Amino acid sequence: MRPLESKVAVVTGAGRGIGRAIAMKLASAGTKLIVNDLDIGPAQDVVQEIRNCGGDATAYPGDITRPDFGERFIAAAVDTYKGLDIIVNNAGYTWDSVIQKMSDEQWYAIIDCHLTAPFRILRAAQPVIREFSKAEQAGGQAIFRKVVNISSASGLSGNPGQVNYSAAKAGIIGLTMTLAKEWGRLNTNVNCVAFGLIETRLTATTSDVSSTIQIGPHEVRVGVNPQFLETLQKNIPLGHAGSPEDAANAVYLLCLPESNYISGQTILCSGGLSA
After folding, report:
1. Which residue in the list 60, 93, 165, 252 is annotated as catalytic?
2. Structural domain boundaries of the chain?
3. Which residues, other chains included, contact 119 with Cβ-Cβ below 8 Å and sequence gap of 6+?
4. Is 165 marked active-site?
5. What stretches of 60-139 adopt beta strand conformation (E)?
6. pLDDT digit string, tens, across residues 6-27
7. Are 191 and 262 a contacting pair, CB within 8 Å?
């Protein structure tokens, strides 16, 4: 039997990049998935990939920053698969600027995406997890659930031009540590993975990809200066940036039964590059 056979997982931002790799990794271990992405096309593509490999997944496109998204997202898992075992708060993007040039809109957009949205999802999940846990404990069962929040090296040490992103990613670490204390009695492990340099469309060199992505009415610049990227990679002890699959493997470790006594921790997945 696969290690996560019949578990039910929800993953935000799972249509591309790291989120897609997380969804595929969990599906390969037997997990049933609710796959979220801002855009319906990428979400459906990942669902089809999972189904083609014999897995079970359902697309749930939508904007995670909508106030009612968390309630609807959690309800989709329970209504579709009658369970909720794994929550991965992965969705995100960057909208960079030095502080004196950063607008309130930029600040709140990134805080809402990386911190407020996970808070709302987890708030909606608590009554569901509590009821499942109460029933299991009454029946003499100890079934563990997993929350994996995504942070960044920027949240651990800061990064010039990313005051909004760094603040949000530091905040998700605080949320993680607090929920680990609140949800321990529910047999729920709450941990965090902080990524270093991972190869995605957001970290590609500006000469390799289109320099903007569309977020609502805004075209947001993405990509990394080639010289800066080269310097950063030289400082990684393992000698190269991580792949989305490398990132997904770190999340996967915290979803396995072997991590049942690990909670409230932040793992830095960075190839040895210290934050």
Report:
1. 165
2. 8-269
3. 175
4. yes
5. 86-89
6. 999 999 999 999 999 999 999 9
7. yes
